[in-house]
C-alpha cells in the first residue's frame, strides 16, 4: 500500500570486489600482460521517487556516484 506524498528518499551503498582475466586479443601487446586484473567498486545512490518537478523531468529516479579502483597487472612502461 503506497502512501501518497509520504515517500522519502532512500539511499544505499554498494561495494564490490572483482578479480578476472584479460582475454588474449592481440599478440603485439601480449608481453605486457603479467597477471589477473583486480579491483574494488564503491557506489553511493539515492532513489528519488520523483517528488519534485525537476526529478520527474529527468526520468532517472536513481542518482549516484561510483568510485572504481583497479590494477591491470601490466608491465610498467618505465621498466628497462
Number of helices: 1
Indicate the mean pLDDT. 77
Shape: elongated
Number of distinct beta strands: 3
- Major sheet characteristics: 3 strands, antiparallel
Cα separation of the termini: 67 Å
- The computed structural class is mainly beta
Strand ordering within the main sheet: 1-2-3
Give the quaternary arrangement of the chains. Answer: single chain
Q: What percent strand?
A: 35-45%
Q: How many domains, as an integer?
A: 1
Order of helices and strands: EEHE
What value does the Rg take, in angstroms? 21 Å
Which blocks of ≥5 consecutive residues have pLDDT under 50?
A: none
Give a brief outline of the structure.
This protein is 6% helix and 38% strand. The protein is mainly β.
Secondary structure blueprint with pairings:
Layout: E1 10-19, E2 38-47, H1 53-57, E3 62-71
Antiparallel strand pairs: 1-2, 2-3
Describe what you observe in this structure.
- The chain is mainly β.
- The chain has one domain (10-71).
- 6% of the residues lie in helices and 38% in strands.
- The protein has one helix and three strands.
- The chain has one helix at residues 53-57; strands at 10-19, 38-47, 62-71.
- A three-stranded antiparallel beta sheet has the order 1-2-3, with no helix packed on it.
- The chain is elongated.
- 0% of the residues are buried.
- The model has no long low-confidence stretch (mean pLDDT 77).
Keywords:
80 residues
Amino acid at each position: 500500500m503506497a502512501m501518497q506524498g509520504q515517500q522519502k528518499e532512500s539511499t544505499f551503498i554498494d561495494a564490490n570486489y572483482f578479480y578476472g582475466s584479460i582475454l588474449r586479443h592481440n599478440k603485439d601487446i601480449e608481453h605486457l600482460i603479467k597477471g589477473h586484473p583486480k579491483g574494488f567498486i564503491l557506489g553511493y545512490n539515492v532513489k528519488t521517487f520523483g517528488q519534485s518537478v525537476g526529478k520527474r523531468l529527468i526520468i532517472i529516479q536513481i542518482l549516484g556516484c561510483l568510485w572504481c579502483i583497479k590494477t591491470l597487472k601490466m608491465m610498467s612502461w618505465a621498466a628497462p
